[in-house]
Amino acid sequence: MTIRYPYKGHGLAGFDRISHSHPAAQLVGWYRAMLRIRRIEEEIERRYHQDLMKTPIHLVIGQEAAAVGCCSALRPTDLVYTSHRTHGAYLAKGGDLGRMLCEMHCRINGCVGSRGGSMHLIDKSVGMSGTSAIVGGAVPIATGAALAAKLKQDDRVVVVFLGDATTEEGVTAESLNFAALKKLPVIFFCENNFYSVQSPLAARQPPRDIRAWAETHGMPADSVDGVNVLAVHETVRAAVERARTGRGPTFIEVAVYRFRAHGGAGDDSKTGYRAEAERVAWEAVDPLHLFGDYLTRSATLDAAAIQTMESDIAGEIAAAFDLALASPHPTEDDLYTHVYAD
Amino acid sequence: MPWDEGLVNSLVYDRPDPAEGRVLSYVRAVNEALATALEHDPSVFVLGQGVDDPTAMFGTTKDLAARFGPDRVFDTPLSEESMMGVSTGAAMNGMRPVFMHNRPDFVLLAFNQLVTHASKFHFMDNGQTTVPMVVWAAIGRGWGSGAQHSQAIHGMLLGVPGLKIVMPSTPYDAKGLLLSAILDNNPVCVFEHRWLMKKDGVVPEGAYRVPIGKGIYRRRGRDVTIVGASHAIELAFQAATSLSSDGIDAEVIDLRTIKPLDEAIVLESLKNTGRLVVVDTAWMKGGLCAEIGCLAAEKGFTDLKAPVVRIGLPDIPTPAGYTLEQFYYPDAARIAAAARELVRA
Question: What is the ipTM of this complex?
């Protein structure tokens, strides 16, 4: 099988030029955030076969730079909505790890009380506001949240994470149209990972530029290399600035690759829907490794600092799993609450 | 003027006595509820195709855009699903949208957002978010409305947890239930009926609420219970009048809300009369008629002196032509005949 979707970016080439405008501590913070997401995902994956997490999982391994680059450009009060692939955005926006793992272990102190599972991680205290397991479902909701922000004049910006297949849903076109019409403070952050479950982009869309498609709805649209955390950050930052100053929505296409299957643990390339060589080629530009190498080469980080980071993160993850496994299960009474609001 | 205005104008209802209070049309009552809500609560806004056009959603939104401005009363793109999601997202973030459709048929385009999103979020995020929104639509009938402009879809929504559904039958209720719906912290569907729009009634000024989830006796009787909501109550009354000339005393229950259902009033009345005729403006199968029939069987079986009778639409799409329509829609005579048969059996 040949490589259908080769990496077309330039790695972190040119990174130096823009990284100087960012303090070293900020770059290190982003690296740590990406590393943390990677290690959390790996630990979830490692334990998944134990069946203690009775929830579908959609891992973001390979897509960490997109989540961190995006959320680092937002304020805590800004709102994020996502699809079913929630882990990256939830963690990058500052969602609580312990409550995330409690949720995934179906415990009552999970972030949504064991009503959502992995596809519905929410932490409103940090603006992680809502998700949908229906492709495109969160797009109009985020648009409505932006309408509320505009009507209330509270200068919040809303970001909705969507995928390439979401651009095929009618409701997405409807929502882009409305957001442009009303100049809403919303950013459509489209992670194009070239596959919807196992269906390649080419089976679903004619050869076209998603960015150009978005632009026809009357808003500026950008394409950015999702391997490059700084490029993602800068692109989102410009869109946030536009949105916050009343100049309306932006669509951003981010080229990424998921190193794992659509759902569950491990990669499924061997089933034949995509070439294993394709995944391997993208792993050669693993956003976490490229960034780590860059920071080491530029002497921003050394091996000892990375080792400290690794062990701190490992300790945090172990403690969070311990908390989840020690937490109580819901009782039957918990089923009957919050069907209606008072 | 909408194409069916002449038909609706021709429907004659009993005129209330002005001595009982201020008389207002159903349309004006809805308009007054919207104006009252917009005036008292800055988080309320009204959207929908044509809410600010000259026909103003049958007149229900008349003058609102001019009075409250284009940010609070605005026309929308023809994007039902997205607008339902936009309403949901706004409601989740402190607003109280009223999303108006001139027919329930258009709500079907937005079922993904209504059924799978708006009604579920409060439960799904463990009560952190509320979704206080109103979805308003007027059921059509007659003048060629046909299969795609006259659907009464409330039966399909009865099985959706988290939703509330109200169906007013009088101008008083149209205002009071709409105000309750707007103030409710859940998604509430308000299904009006086009044939009630020119009905007059006594409507108090200012804000008042008709409670959601409570039915009301419109007529007390001892022989047979006729239960329904919305325009079905108009037909039930006509049937009750005709029955009384035969010496049959019918009780009429207006459910006002069909979800959550006031089971107690139905069971109480059934205990009193022992006979039940359920009337609905929608299809008989799988909807309100079926639900109430099942309620009687499950919880009122020992009170039943005769089988429950359902009067609703047959399992057939609505025909557009005038003659076929006459065979399709049940009328007061059919309700009366069914009740008569029950009592005499």
Answer: 0.96
